[in-house]
């Protein structure tokens, strides 16, 4: 992979400008975006996309990178402000932009040449019914673009819009976000913050290593309270459906669904000491804040995978309001 360097002239420098201004989200515009004043535009914008990538690089996940101002991005700004000791309001300003390195950040995009391996293990379709899913061998990605969007922490439609002529076949080069490498280190304690819909991970010295958006339980199946511990970590787990916990469709018998990133718990399961509860991925990252969880804590697949690399058996997980 290589950093994105456009051979085209920069066609647009975007700031939080007057309402109604036409904002074109192109790779060139994202690279050139700079904060001047005001809040983020309500419509998709290059500035918002660049901000999301910089937050991701700082260990504060915005969820999906989609160029849209929304709940996940606002909660990420709040988390970054709190970690930096800044006033917490969830609104971009010059101080936040400077702290993220916005004025002097290196390229936030990269070029990726699609390989045959990128196109492997694609499935033709995924039914919604759990019984039909249980009859499959693998709950994989349905499109190469879906797989690559997750790899680069992006909304699939946003990736497609940045590469309008791409066919997503082997040998083709596309432009994608460059969210940086996984956060390193070892997590001693995790806080699941129900009121913020965020999960914060701390090292032995109380320093926040990472912070992610999450879906936490529901009124019918609330998440645990108090302290629990990590008991095991399973990558590409099977999913054991138990109708005593909740009923999906007309499925009244237990089922075992095969592994895959598009399974109900995504690509990783972090088991907790309270039976049936865990921290896990999701097959639908773009609607993370719009879906209730059946008592567990749901993250994007890439955030769940990073968290799994940071915790270990015995890591304390505290659920707080």
| Second CATH tier, the architecture of the largest domain | Orthogonal Bundle
Q: What is the terminal separation in angstroms?
A: 42 Å
β-strand amount: 15-25%
The order of strands across the largest sheet is 6-5-4-14-8-11-12-13-7
Number of helices: 8
State the major sheet. 9 strands, mixed
Q: What sort of overall outline do the alpha carbons produce when their principal axes are compared?
A: globular
Order of helices and strands: EHHHHEHHHEEEEEEEEEEEHE
Helical coverage, percent range: 10-25%
Tell me the domain tally.
2
- How much is the average pLDDT? 91
Over the alpha carbons, how many angstroms does the gyration radius reach?
20 Å
CATH superfamily grouping of the largest domain: PGBD-like superfamily/PGBD
What can you tell me about this protein's structure?
The chain has two domains: 1-181, PGBD-like superfamily/PGBD (Muramoyl-pentapeptide Carboxypeptidase, domain 1, Orthogonal Bundle); 189-320, L,D-transpeptidase catalytic domain-like. Strands 6-5-4-14-8-11-12-13-7 form a nine-stranded mixed sheet, sandwiched between helices. Strands 1-2-3 form a three-stranded antiparallel sheet. A hairpin with a 5-residue loop joins strand 11 (268-272) and strand 12. It has eight helices and 14 strands. It has helices at residues 27-32, 46-57, 71-84, 94-99, 130-134, 144-151, 156-162, 301-310, and strands at residues 2-3, 109-113, 173-177, 189-193, 198-202, 208-213, 215-216, 226-235, 239-241, 255-257, 268-272, 278-280, 297-298, 316-320. With 321 residues, it is of the alpha+beta class. The radius of gyration is 20 Å and the shape is globular. 21% of the residues lie in helices and 19% in strands. The model is unreliable at 7-22 (pLDDT under 50).
């Amino acid at each position: 992979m290589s950093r994105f360097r456009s051979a085209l002239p920069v066609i647009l420098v975007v700031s939080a400008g007057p309402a109604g201004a036409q904002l074109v989200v192109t790779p060139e515009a994202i690279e050139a975006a700079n904060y001047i004043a005001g809040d983020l535009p309500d419509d998709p914008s290059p500035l918002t996309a660049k901000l999301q990538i910089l937050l991701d690089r700082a260990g504060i996940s915005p969820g999906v990178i989609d160029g849209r101002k929304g709940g996940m991005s606002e909660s990420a700004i709040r988390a970054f402000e709190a970690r930096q000791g800044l006033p917490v309001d969830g609104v971009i300003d010059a101080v936040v932009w400077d702290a993220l390195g916005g004025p002097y950040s290196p390229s936030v995009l990269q070029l990726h040449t699609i390989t045959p391996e990128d196109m492997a293990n694609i499935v033709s379709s995924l039914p919604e019914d759990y019984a039909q899913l249980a009859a499959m061998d693998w709950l994989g990605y349905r499109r190469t673009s879906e797989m690559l969007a997750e790899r680069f922490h992006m909304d699939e439609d946003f990736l497609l819009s940045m590469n309008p002529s791409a066919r997503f076949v082997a040998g083709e080069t596309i432009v994608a976000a460059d969210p940086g490498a996984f956060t390193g280190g070892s997590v001693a304690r995790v806080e699941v913050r129900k009121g913020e819909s965020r999960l914060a991970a701390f090292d032995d010295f109380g320093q926040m290593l990472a912070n992610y958006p999450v879906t936490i339980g529901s009124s019918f199946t609330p998440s645990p309270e108090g302290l629990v511990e990590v008991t095991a970590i399973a990558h590409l787990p099977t999913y054991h459906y138990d109708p005593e916990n909740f009923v999906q469709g007309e499925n009244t018998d237990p089922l075992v669904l095969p592994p895959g990133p598009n399974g109900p718990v995504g690509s990783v399961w972090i088991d907790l000491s309270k039976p049936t509860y865990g921290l896990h991925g999701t097959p639908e990252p773009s609607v993370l804040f719009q879906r209730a969880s059946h008592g567990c804590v749901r993250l994007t697949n890439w955030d769940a995978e990073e968290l799994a690399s940071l915790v270990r058996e015995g890591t304390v997980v505290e659920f707080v309001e």
